[in-house]
Amino acid sequence: MSQYTDNASKSMDKCIEALKANFSRVRTGRANPHILDSIRVDYYGQPTPVTQLAGVKVPEASMLVVEPWDKTSLKAIEKAIETSDLGITPSNDGACIRLPFPKPTEERRRELAKECSQMAEEGRVAVRNVRREANGKVERDEELPEDVQTREKKAIQKLTDSHVALIDELLKAKTAEVMEI
Q1: CATH of 33-100, one of 3.90.79.10, 3.40.50.620, 3.30.1360.40, 3.40.50.170
Q2: Which of 18, 26, 45, 69 is least buried, going by the fewest C-beta atoms within 10 A?
């Protein structure tokens, strides 16, 4: 691989990782600890991620249990989860916080599948933008002969096609997960 395809591959891989991170935040009927990644708790005046203050367990498919290491932070964690846009009501039993994940309705599952499709399309656009930038760099390199430029562009296109296919596979899997009852 040349420097152009290598750089393009690394950038496209980052696009895939970003898409996976976005997909992990989509709330399905199944409990997913990554849904708490974006929640910050006011802990001694510092916004701190929930995952740094507590252990998050999945005792059953539709329940998350958050057990803080410092029991004094229990109320702050509960408040942060309540004020977040998760749409889950936490229940505090004095030692841990339980987060029940209700099964989404058919209409909500369709909305989530549509959301996932939009995320996938954004991922495809990001991959294509990387392709455009890489092709531009190849074209601007005046030291490369024309046949080498053509070969580089074909290699970049192959990379693009494989990454777009991977995005399609990820979307198919996530849509199946979301639509699962």
Answers
A1: 3.30.1360.40
A2: 45
